[in-house]
Design brief:
The chain is α/β, with parallel strands linked by helices. The chain has a single domain, classed as Rossmann fold. It is built from nine helices and seven strands; from the N terminus they run E-H-E-H-E-E-H-E-H-H-E-H-E-H-H-H. It has a seven-stranded parallel sheet, with helices on both faces. Strand 2, helix 2 and strand 3 form a beta-alpha-beta unit. Helix 1 packs parallel to helix 2. The protein is globular, with a radius of gyration of 16 Å. The relative contact order is 0.18.
């Protein structure tokens, strides 16, 4: 059972969008998938409720308690945890005994890069991360890759203590799909497939740490 934590110290970085689309990817691939929503806003749980009427449903569980992993069914194959908003490094540490990897979405702006760097440096000092027991990967999110700003931001992210494991382009497709309880992996148009390809490196990275 692979458990992945999606966490960000910065609001609005696309944490819940990353968590729901990753969960949908695994569900579409035929894996028994659980989304644990530890964010008090509950957007992940509402997405799971909307998705329940579709094929490839994802089981949504609340995750605001310390024993968040107890209700996970034993036949679950993939568990994606959407962390509390604005999580602190010491709060991340409480999850590290129970997950194999942490994904941190980062937006390509100077404000977001500056706000995220101290958080990442603190994560690098946590025991299980420092000893290589838990992998941490950065997801460059909402990129406009044809712009210098996005290109420079990705280069800046490469200075951080963790690898950039995916570069996701900006698209309203994520927002539109979420409102329907879906994801970009539920569609098959040529345009959507190009965005699906952005996830290939992330999925490969997670597979190495499963």
């Amino acid at each position: 059972m692979l458990k992945v934590l999606v966490a960000s110290s910065k609001g609005g970085a696309g944490k819940s969008t990353l968590a729901t689309n990753l969960a949908a990817y695994y569900a579409v691939e035929g894996k028994n998938t659980v989304l644990v929503d530890a964010d008090r806003q509950g957007s992940g749980l509402r997405w799971c409720q909307r998705r329940a009427q579709h094929a490839d449903a994802v089981l949504g569980l609340p995750g605001t308690r310390r024993d968040w992993d107890k209700p996970i069914p034993p036949d679950a194959q993939r568990v994606v945890v959407d962390s509390p908003a604005g999580i602190r490094p010491d709060e991340v540490e409480a999850y590290l005994d129970k997950v194999a990897a942490v994904l941190v979405p980062v937006l390509p702006s100077a404000i977001d890069l500056e706000a995220t760097e101290p958080f990442l440096n603190d994560l690098a000092g946590l025991g299980r991360v420092r000893r290589g027991k838990v992998a941490v990967g950065l997801v460059a999110n909402r990129l406009k890759p044809w712009t210098n700003a996005s290109q420079l931001a990705v280069e800046e992210m490469r200075r951080f203590p963790f690898p950039v494991v995916a570069q996701l382009r900006d698209t309203q497709g994520y927002v539109l799909a979420n409102a329907l309880g879906k994801s970009i992996f539920d569609y098959h148009s040529e345009l959507v497939r190009s965005h699906q390809q952005d996830w290939a490196s992330l999925v490969r990275w997670l597979k190495k740490h499963s």
